[in-house]
Specification:
346 residues; globular; Dihydrodipicolinate Reductase, domain 2; Rossmann fold; 8-stranded mixed β-sheet; single chain; 6-stranded parallel β-sheet; alpha/beta
Length: 346
């Protein structure tokens, strides 16, 4: 987890890779942060990067279809990897091998083998590589995490995610769209809230008869976590009613009481007899009135702080690979029909 710092009293130079929707959300963050500057934009379709830059009034910003050309020409301190998941490994390893740190969109990669290659590249180059799980920064999720910390040893955690989502076209190309796309948000939140890591997984992924997805869009998983905690997840992209929030709905039982959260409002807590537990309130939004995508400014701030101080952000690759391991273990359990050990060694 050791990485080299960026020295010097100057803004950190950043390049956005990928000019799709999320790349268009990240570029304004680099422009808004007082300690970063956007020095380049890369996309496989150069004209798309040009159009995105021009739309922000950045007619002079260097753009290219070649990542290496921009890395060589602009000498950035970091890149923000906003490409499709299938391209994450190539972009990340290319940047790290050239001594450039990487802040990536989720998931880290498609497979654990690819993820291990990426983490080893970060270790080899001594550069910071982190994945931004933007929901970790939601004020009410942070309040829920702090409330759960009041419950003592944890026994049971559940989350439900039900959404009648027709979504984007690529979801219909996935064999298990819920597990392969959305579940990592819930799995990563489970780790953040509980402070526990996965030990084993058993999962079933299936296709309800009424769904509009060709793939298995619904799933139920049971994870054994460190400390004896059991975490269960159930959800569907084809829920016909009573949708949950995009963060899911949650319940955690510990020896001192139970906390609940609907994924939108403030968490609630009820103490066991003879105990007192405190319900934490969300802290004020550090970016009131913002219209940009939530959780990006906070993730960039942690990443910049890491590059300056050596303090690892929440999504640092050695930690985030454990959330990816939950997804890949769940998929392996689906394929084998067996309980699977969760392995996240590098």
């Amino acid at each position: 987890m050791t990485f080299d710092l960026v020295e010097g009293d100057r803004p950190l130079r950043g390049v956005v890779v990928g000019a799709g929707f999320i790349g268009g959300q990240w570029a304004p963050e680099l422009l808004a942060h007082p300690q970063t500057e956007l020095v380049g934009w890369v996309d496989v379709a150069e004209e798309r990067a040009r159009a995105s830059a021009d739309a922000l009034g950045l007619e002079d910003l260097p753009v290219s279809s070649s990542l290496t050309a921009v890395l060589d020409g602009e000498e950035p301190d970091f890149v923000v990897n906003c490409t499709v998941p299938e391209a994450h490994r190539e972009v990340t390893v290319t940047a790290l091998d050239r001594g450039v740190s990487v802040l990536s969109e989720k998931p880290m990669s498609i497979t654990m083998d690819e993820a291990r290659v990426m983490v080893r590249a970060a270790d080899r180059s001594r550069r910071l590589f982190a994945v931004n799980q933007n929901r970790r920064f939601l004020p009410n999720l942070v309040a829920f995490r702090r409330t759960v910390a009041e419950l003592g040893p944890l026994g049971v955690m559940t989350s439900e995610f039900f959404m009648p989502y027709k979504g984007v076209a690529f979801l219909s190309s996935l064999e298990h769209p819920l597990l392969q796309d959305m579940a990592i948000h819930l799995f990563d939140a489970a780790r953040a809230v509980s402070g526990a890591d996965p030990v084993s997984a058993y999962c079933e992924s299936f296709r309800p008869p009424w769904t509009w997805y060709p793939g298995a869009c619904s799933a139920t998983a049971i994870f054994e976590m460190t400390g004896g905690l059991r975490y269960t997840f159930t959800g569907s992209w084809s829920a016909p009613g009573h949708a949950t929030s995009w963060t899911g709905s949650w319940r955690v039982a510990g020896s001192y009481g139970t906390a609940r959260w609907d994924g939108d409002g403030r968490p609630t807590v009820e103490a066991a007899k003879g105990h007192k537990v405190r319900r934490h309130r969300p802290e004020p939004d550090r970016y009131p009135g913002r219209t940009r995508f939530s959780g990006l400014a906070e993730g960039l701030e942690e990443f910049v702080t890491g590059l300056r101080t050596g303090r690892a952000p929440q999504g640092e690759c050695h930690d985030n690979i454990r959330s990816l391991a939950m997804v890949t273990a769940a998929l392996e359990s689906v394929r084998t029909g067996a309980r699977v050990a969760v392995a996240f060694d590098v």
